[in-house]
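STRUCTURE:
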């Protein structure tokens, strides 16, 4: 990752705060003032995590959150302007896993846990639903993002049932005091084009308005010539206006609207067939609309009242060969909380409600509607100037899976240049039909869901960091035990069933990062080890979880001078992965990904170019992507364990006007 800035930050409450208020100045007092002064002397940016209600600076919070800061967001915006996949994929312990090679769908796996356990938020709101669709990640442009916050491990105490494995929180830019515009045009050697625009400005002394819009297209590519698209074709339009108001004494209001439409085409190339001699087109048409609102009102002598709400509707028309599925996903969310502090203790409590629903015109047997009211509370206490303790708990009353309690305990100890964080949490996930294989193959071969139990997990982590002068280093140990994990099992050559696995899925691992920064140069080295095992479906003990590399590492060098440009080179290693239902091999090959990017700034205009996968690593160079015969679930491809698109060069122009 170019110029990676994995800053240790925090989100320490179960209810999320108003994003505008989080940009206010931090308190003047701090339990670790000497360490903060040291950071300021070293030129580190002061970052307030948008989700914290206690208004503490990142150095003072007990839960580790990694923040992808603005400079790196800008780098990824010119490397992959169409979506945020690259932005999050190059964070240690985070892996973007392709779930449907036919359409390029993908989800986010955090520290070896399944992608369906990751909650995707926008400005602290679940605008993409309780369980984001696998293509949602590929439909979000990064052009308007100010930063991205990553929480790893069970975060149900913070966010409810959809955050069993962690949270990705996308924080948007805010209008300044003057008009500004950022327009980017990009093209790739794989016949892809992107055009994005971000416009923002004040409407008055207390109000501001912004608009983000994008047009994206990609021509389908059959790179290995087997008659199957290795890169799906698509055409997509997005628009998101935002309104903000800041009143006297800290009152604030934030409103966002979003709209997206996309037509995506994959499967067999025109005139070609799969091995059984038939054509198999795989397409998906998507229309998504959402609305979000956050308000904050100080109550004199009591605390701060916060209100949040959002709604989302997403309509799909899928085609899997001869089968057409017409369905709709919807979600509603509302929350009210009261926060305050007294002396060395800060507290927050509130009520929340979330509903998630699915309706299928084609297969109504899979319709579901989950209603989940909940109560939450959190207390954070500065025991000493170096030690901060936090405890949070949430009780959810799930309409299908009963009462669920999700606690989280955290501690921060900061002696001198050292930072030590420990955390333990429990969470749950409400099963739906949409495991990876069903996202790829549809519902036509799935048996109606039986009496499934909620998936639960216990996670723990210990993080030790050190910073001195230009050097920064950290080591993290993490673990998770998952009970009642769901998986798909074959019950006939053309039928599958979703069941709870008997036994525990266990994940153990570690992350290490070392960074050197001086005079515009940054060198970052990272390493991640993941040992994930689960009960073997054959009943022969335990096996390694498929598509989970035990070893991965990265080395990135970056030079940047503000107003002049940047130049970077990156190398990422992905180790061996166990494979499932792959007739060509049982273990993947390790591979190395190399990339180089550069940008030249000429006043308001900048020119950029980015070369990805310089070694032209492609899974189809080693094995076919297509299966010899269709799987019981309905898929025609093996799992994607390496890149499918090979070497790609992109470049373009960026225009900036106004602003600071």
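SEQUENCE:
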């Amino acid at each position: 990752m170019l110029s990676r800035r994995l800053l240790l930050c925090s989100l320490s409450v179960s209810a999320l705060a108003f994003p505008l208020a989080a940009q206010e100045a931090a308190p003047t007092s701090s339990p670790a003032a000497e360490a903060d002064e040291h950071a300021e002397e070293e030129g580190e940016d002061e970052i307030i995590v948008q989700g914290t209600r206690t208004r503490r600076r990142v150095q003072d919070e007990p839960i580790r959150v990694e923040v992808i800061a603005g400079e790196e967001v800008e780098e990824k915006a010119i490397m992959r302007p169409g979506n945020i996949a690259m932005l999050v994929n190059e964070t240690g312990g985070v892996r973007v896993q392709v779930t449907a090679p036919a359409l390029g769908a993908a989800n986010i796996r955090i520290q070896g846990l399944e992608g369906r356990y990751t909650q995707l938020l926008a400005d602290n709101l679940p605008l993409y639903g309780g369980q984001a669709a696998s293509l949602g990640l590929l439909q979000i442009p990064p052009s308007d993002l100010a930063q991205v916050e990553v929480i790893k491990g069970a975060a149900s105490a913070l966010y409810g049932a959809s955050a069993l494995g962690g949270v990705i929180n996308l924080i948007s830019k805010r209008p300044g005091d003057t008009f500004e515009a950022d327009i980017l045009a990009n093209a790739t050697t794989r016949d892809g084009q992107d055009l994005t625009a971000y416009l923002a400005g004040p409407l008055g002394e207390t109000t501001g308005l912004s608009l983000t819009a994008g047009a994206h297209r990609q021509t389908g590519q059959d790179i290995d010539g087997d008659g199957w698209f290795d890169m799906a074709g698509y055409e997509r339009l997005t628009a998101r206006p935002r309104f903000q108001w800041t009143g006297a004494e800290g009152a604030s209001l934030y409103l966002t609207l979003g709209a997206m439409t996309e037509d995506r085409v994959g499967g067999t190339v025109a005139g070609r067939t799969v091995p059984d001699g038939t054509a198999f087109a795989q397409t998906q048409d998507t229309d998504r609309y959402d609305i979000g609102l956050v308000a904050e009102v100080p109550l004199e002598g009591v605390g701060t009242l916060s209100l949040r709400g959002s709604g989302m509707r997403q309509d799909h028309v899928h085609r899997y060969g001869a089968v057409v599925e017409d369905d709709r996903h919807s979600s509603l969310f509302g929350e009210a909380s009261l926060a305050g502090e007294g002396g060395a203790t800060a507290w927050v409590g509130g009520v929340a409600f979330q509903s998630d629903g699915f309706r299928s015109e084609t297969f109504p047997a899979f319709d579901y509607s989950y209603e989940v009211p909940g109560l939450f509370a959190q207390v954070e206490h500065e025991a000493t100037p170096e030690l901060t303790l936090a405890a949070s708990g949430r009780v959810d009353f799930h309409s299908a899976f009963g009462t669920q309690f999700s606690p989280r305990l955290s501690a921060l100890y900061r002696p001198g240049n050292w930072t030590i964080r420990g955390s333990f949490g429990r969470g749950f996930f409400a099963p739906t039909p949409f495991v990876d294989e069903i996202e790829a193959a549809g519902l036509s071969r799935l048996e109606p869901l039986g009496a499934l139990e909620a998936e639960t997990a216990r996670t723990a982590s210990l993080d030790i960091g050190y910073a001195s002068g230009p050097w920064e280093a950290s080591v993290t140990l993490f673990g998770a035990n998952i009970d009642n994990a769901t998986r798909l099992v074959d019950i006939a050559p053309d039928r599958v069933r979703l069941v709870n696995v008997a036994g525990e899925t266990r994940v153990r691992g570690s992350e290490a990062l070392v960074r050197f920064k001086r005079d515009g140069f940054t060198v970052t080295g990272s390493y991640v080890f993941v040992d994930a095992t689960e009960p073997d479906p054959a009943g022969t003990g335990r096996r390694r979880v498929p598509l989970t590399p035990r070893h991965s590492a990265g080395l990135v060098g970056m030079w940047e001078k503000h107003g002049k440009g940047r130049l970077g080179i990156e190398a990422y290693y992905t180790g061996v992965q166990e494979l499932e239902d792959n007739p060509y091999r049982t273990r993947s090959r390790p591979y190395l990904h190399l990339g180089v990017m550069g940008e030249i700034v000429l006043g308001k205009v900048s020119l950029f170019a980015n070369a990805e996968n310089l070694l032209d690593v492609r899974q189809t160079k080693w094995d076919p992507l297509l299966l010899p015969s269709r799987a019981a679930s309905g898929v025609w491809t093996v799992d994607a364990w390496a890149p499918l698109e090979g070497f790609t060069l992109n470049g373009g122009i960026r225009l900036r006007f106004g602003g600071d």
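REMARK: Confidence is low (pLDDT under 50) at residues 1-44.
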